[in-house]
Amino acid sequence: MAERKEFKLPDVGEGLTEADIVAWHVKPGDQVEDGQIIVEIETAKAVVELPSPWDGTVARLLAEAGQTVDVGVPIIAIEVAGAGPETTDSPERAAVPAPATAESPGGAGHGGATPLAPPAEAPQRQAVLVGYGVKASSTTRRARRAAPQPAEPVAPAGRVLAKPPVRKLAKDLGISLAGLTGSGPDGSITRDDVQRAAATDTPVRSGYSEGNGARTATVVPGGEERIPVRGVRKHMAAAMVSSAFTAPHVTEFLQVDVTETVTALRRVRDLPEFADLRVSPLLFVARALLIAVARHPLVNSSWDAAAEEIVVRHYVNLGIAVATERGLIVPNIKNADSLPLPELARSLHELAETGRAGKATPADLTGGTITITNVGVFGVDAGTPILTPGETAILAFGQVKDTPWVVDGQLAVRQACTLSLSFDHRVVDGQLGSAVLRDVGSMLTDPVRMLAWG
β-strands 322-324, 393-397: how paired? Predict the structure, then answer.
């Protein structure tokens, strides 16, 4: 006799209370294996793939794509071979890689949590995903909304042939993929299909369930559009508001002649150590900032209001702001200050690719100490970046472009850019902020200084 088990939404980060169902990879009647990816969820920090905890047959999907679900609420029922009544359980084991643990002194990186140990006398073990989990008494959760009653199985978005960017476009426009006829290969839905649906006179609705009630986004030509704020975008918005209104920001600007840095980059690209790496000006900006931090450690610190202390970190987890379809994220390179230049280049590339693909883990997104935002890739000269919460400084790197410049008393055309440094004025005063910005600019003007100072 088969036993029906219900898989509860696990806590895949530190104290996360809810997640959105992005897409199902299975449907009722499908056979699944232990460790097989069955669903993608989006938390406030990242998109995470969840595996099946058992071998069996999918009985019901208890949550729809687009629905927000509280941690601990069942999301799927699976018929598992064996005897016994229907149970609600958490996975015994799941083949999900654990978030990276901190390697830096002082405990940087906060993504990992020890799985809950089962009581010795318990007949069934209550475990969570390996490498994730809720620490006992470590968080205070808000009151739970009443769990929605499972509805009859519906056709999830995961059953529709469409690429992730098309799914995202449909979600933003409030278009139900299930109601569209695809014009792409094998009947897949394309961006044109979604945009045509959005342009029709009849509103096309896509349900966004929240709690016990359905929340829908409706698009009417010539009217208004409402996009639910969830997941990464919701977390980013809250973090930026908190940072802007708790830390007194000051931003300083410096225009820099980076002609020699551009020349040095061309020479570096020809070195065998960089043969398979993508080398961009961001690499030298990152190295210059890391050296400036070593010269001025206070800029790599945080403000502990509760303890009334400034916490100076003697390691650098370098954050790089990455624009994704789901919003801005800031994954960081652990112990970036200890990496040789080729490894720093590799880490920058891998971090950006992982972030844009939505594969950054909670561990990648926590524990940062100082951040760079490369606004130059968007054709922007400068900005006033907002601090990443928990950090004291953020450096914006503007576009490199031909600029009239005076060299040895003569007007010349040089490669120049603008650097913008925002800092928490409770920790960094104008003199220190200016010194850090000046050092970064000096090293980009003359890359040999990186050898002298590094």
Answer: unpaired
Helix (H) or strand (E) holding 244: helix 231-246
Would you state the torsion angle of the CA atoms of residues 4, 8, 12, 17, taken in this order, to the nearest 10 degrees?
Answer: 180
SS3 120: coil
| DSSP helix/strand/coil, 430 | helix
Domain range 160-219, CATH class: few secondary structures
pLDDT at 237: 84
Q: Look at 195 and 410; give whichever has higher pLDDT.
A: 410
The Cα angle at residue 42 between residues 39 and 43, in degrees rounded to 5: 130
Measured distance CA(134)–CA(115) in Å, rounded = 7
For 137, the 3-state DSSP assignment is: coil
Annotated catalytic, 425? yes
Kindly report the pTM of this predicted structure: 0.61
- Residue in this structure with the two tokens 């098309």, named with its chain if needed: 166
- The CATH class for the domain spanning 232-453 reads alpha beta
pLDDT digits (tens, 9 = 90+) for 330-381: 999 999 999 999 999 999 999 988 888 878 888 898 899 999 999 999 999 9
Length of the chain as a residue count: 454
Give the chain's mean pLDDT. Answer: 79
Q: Is the dihedral of CA 149, 155, 159, 165 positive or negative?
A: negative
What does the alpha-carbon distance between residue 142 and residue 139 come to, in Å, rounded to a whole number? Answer: 10
Tens digit of each residue's pLDDT (9 = 90 or more) over 269-326:
999 999 989 899 999 999 999 999 999 999 999 999 899 999 999 999 999 999 887 7
61: left (phi over 0), alpha (psi -120 to 50) or beta: beta
Q: Which of 110, 296, 349, 425 is catalytic?
A: 425
Q: What is the spatial distance between Cα 392 and Cα 385, in angstroms, rounded to a whole number?
A: 12
- CATH number 2.40.50.100 is the correct assignment for the domain at 1-154: yes
Backbone angles phi, psi at 373, to 5 degrees: -120, 125
- CA distances, 192 to each of 189, 384, 425 (Å): 8, 37, 49
If DSSP codes are grouped into helix, strand and coil, which group holds residue 381?
coil
Domain residue ranges of the chain, discontinuous segments joined by +? 1-154, 160-219, 232-453
The CA distance from 80 to 159, in Å, is 23
